[in-house]
Amino acid sequence: MTNIKSYWHSLSILFRLFFILSINYLSNTVQPGGLLKEVKNRLLIRFTKHQWLGYAIALIVLALAIPKFNQFGGLRFEQMLFFLVLPFTLTKKGGFYKPIPSFIMATFFILTFYLTHVYSLFYFGLCCAIFTSLTITKHRPTLLSFGLGLITTPAIKYLLSIFSFPLRLEITEVAGQILSLFMQELKIAGNCIIVNGISFTVAPECLGLNMISSALVFAVFVLAFFAKKFQKRPQLGFTLLFMSVAFTLVVLTNLTRILLTVILQAMPGNTLHELIGIFLFVINCCLPLFVIGAYSKRFYRTHNTNTTLAKQKYTLSLFLLPILVIGSYSVHKNLLNTEFYSTSVSINGFNKSESKDGVSKFINASAIIYVKPPAFMLGSDHNPFICWRGSGYQIKNERLQQMGKHSVYTFELHKPGAAPLYSCWWYSNGQTNSISQLEWRLATLNGKAPFVLVNVTTGNKNDTHTLSTQLLQTNIFD
To answer: What pTM, to 2 d.p., does this model score?
Structure first.
C-alpha cells in the first residue's frame, strides 16, 4: 500500500514549487522592484545553483507515479534495471540541455495514455518527464537514456513474448539437429526435444525473455560506460549495430543453454538448470559485449560541450509534469475499445455463457471453445497460454500446424492428476483467419472487422483437429 506520509511530503514539496510560480506571477505584476520579486529571485537562484529544482521534480514525478505502477502490477524486472542503469547514461558534458523537446514527448505520451490506457505509453511518458527534469541539472540525459527507456517499456517485453514462438521452434530445430549428431533416440516435436523418453520443452521462460531484456540493457550500460571512459558519444549507426549484436549473442546463448541442459539433463526447477543459464549469459553475452565495447573507440564521436542553461520560462513549465502524472489517476478503462457484441457469435451444438470481461464460453460434452473479444490494435491480445497457466496447467508441445488452407497454433495442457487436454487457437474476424500478430493488427488499423481469438480444447487430439477444421470453414459471426 502507498505510504500516506511519503505522499504528503511529496505534495508539500509540490506546493512549495507552485508557491514559487505564484511569486513569479505576482512579482511581474505588482511592484517589479519590490519585496516579492526579491524573494522570488533568491528562491530561484537557490534552486538553480544547487540543481535542486530538476532533481526535486524528477523525484516528485516518480513518487506520484507509484499508484499507477501498482495498478499495473508494479515495476517489472526490466524497469528496475532502467533505474539502476539510468545514472550511467547521464552526462555532465553535452547531452540534452533543452527541456522543451522531451517535455513535448512526455506530454504527448501521457495524454495518449489517457485515451488508450496502454501502460507502455504512460511508462515511456514518465521516462520522458524524468529526462525533462534532468535537462536543467548537471546530470543531463543522452540518446542512450532515451534508448534505455524505450528498451525497458512493457511493450518490448510483450512483443518479444508474442513473436517468440517461431523463434523457439527454429532454435528447437537447430538444437535437435546438433544433438542428433551424437545422440540416439532423439525426436523433435514442435518446441519439444525428446531424448530416450525424456521430454525437454523450450518454453517462453527457457528462451530467456528476461535474459533478452537484460542483454539489451547491459548493452546500453557498456555503451554508456565507454562513453564516459572515452569522453565521447557512440555514433547512432554503431549503437544500433551493437544492440543487434547483443540480441544475436543472447539468442546464441539460449541455443547453447538448450544444448547443455539436454546433455546434462538439467530439468527446469533444478539448480543446475539456473546456474547454466546465468553462467552462459555472463560468458557468452556480457563478456563479448564488454570486449567489443573496449575496442570500439573509433565509433565514438566528440561530445557536444554546450552548457547553455535553460531559460527561466521553460524551467517553470516543468511544474506541469507532476500534474500530468496526477491526471493519470482518472484513467480507469480503455476508451478506444473496438465495438464488439458477443451476442453476434454463435456455435451450433454448444451451450453459451459469458464472463464479465466479455469472454464467451461454448461447451458441450466433449469440447470447450473460448471466443475472446478483440483487443485494441496497440493493446495486448488475450493469449490463451496466460489463461491456461493461470488455471494451473502446464503448456507442452506447442506447434505451428496446417489445417486445410489455414495455419493454427496447437499445444497440450497438462495438470498433475488429470488427463492431458489438446488445444488449438487462431484469430478470426469472420472473413479472415490468421495467426499473424502483424496481420490482424494492420487489418484492424485499416478498418477491417475486429478479430477475436478462438481457442478450441478437447480431451482427444483428433477431436480437436476435426472441430477446429470445421470452425475454420464456418463464419461464427451472425
So the answer is: 0.67
